[in-house]
Amino acid sequence: MFQSFFKYLLSLLLFFTFIGCSKAPITNRNQIITTDKSKELALGKKMSNRILRRTTISKNKKAIDIVNEVGMKIVKVVNQDYNTTNYEWKFTVLDDKFKASAVCLPGGRVFIYSGLFPYLDNKDELAVVLGHEIAHALARHKVERKASSIMSNFSASIIKILIDEDKSILKIQKDREKNRADEMMKEWVVLPYSRTHEYEADHIGLVLSTKAGYNPKAFLSFWRKFPQESIVKPEYSSTHPTPVNRMKKIEALMPSLMLLYNKDSKEHF
């Protein structure tokens, strides 16, 4: 029985390695992606419809125009450097002053909530936010997480089967060990993937927004004033990097980003 389990596990690993292997743009990180692009676009449309059913579209013309102006400049860079003809880039401002966030869905539909605007002092800061979100879609992070979730669930299942086969362990102990298996896969596979994606979206997004002519130092000014959680969890237990580690990563990238920067003055709005 164990032999068949390990053969199945090896087959799955080989499938992910040779069928789903690709590389992230700019960082060249190896990725495992098993969802084809047509299904990815369908997923993005489904998620978009869900958001639009729950939230009102803003009528603030000034905000809408600025978001589209900045966003499409970044998209122009993306389209020049990468084959994204199948993406449907669209920027929508949502009217929710209590939500300070933005999201880019698979396929290129970008939503920015009105609650984020009080933290944006210029177009450069808006650009680093939009660049970050666009990077998630360009690097196909959503469907990559789907593949990592499949691997995590399968690995946890194998561990649970092996636990059940161990006759020397009491049932109550087996239940505890099974729960621990789920926690282990979350800490070892799911959360590290999420943090990697956030670091990578920072990196890719800043390269894109800088190439579009926006000052990468705006990332630092934006994050210094953006409200952070009063109690910061250890990074290993979080989906996002800690603010300190995030800033350190960006500061390390800043010299190379500034070499790309070709814009002298900030445009305020």
Overall mean confidence score, pLDDT = 80
* Uncertain segments: 1-5, 264-269
Described by the principal axes of the CA atoms, the overall outline is: globular
Distance between the termini: 66 Å
Strand order of the largest sheet: 3-5-4
Largest sheet: 3 strands, mixed
Structural class: mainly alpha
Number of domains: 1
Task: Quickly list its features.
269 residues, mainly alpha, 3-stranded mixed sheet, two-stranded antiparallel ribbon, 8 helices, 5 strands, 7% strand, disordered N terminus, disordered C terminus
Annotate the secondary structure layout.
Blueprint: H1 2-19, E1 21-23, E2 30-32, H2 37-54, H3 61-81, E3 90-94, E4 102-104, E5 109-113, H4 123-138, H5 141-165, H6 171-211, H7 218-225, H8 243-260
Parallel strand pairs: 3-5
Antiparallel strand pairs: 1-2, 4-5
Helix pairs in contact: 1-5, 3-4, 4-6, 4-7, 5-6, 6-8
Structural overview:
With 269 residues, this protein is mainly alpha-helical. It has one domain (35-260). It is 61% helix and 7% strand. It has 8 helices and 5 strands, in the order αββααβββααααα. The chain has helices at 2-19, 37-54, 61-81, 123-138, 141-165, 171-211, 218-225, 243-260, and strands at 21-23, 30-32, 90-94, 102-104, 109-113. The strands form 2 sheets. The protein has a 3-stranded mixed beta sheet, with helices on both faces. A hairpin with a 4-residue loop joins strand 4 (102-104) and strand 5. Helix 1 (2-19) packs antiparallel against helix 5 (141-165). The model is unreliable at 1-5 and 264-269 (pLDDT under 50).
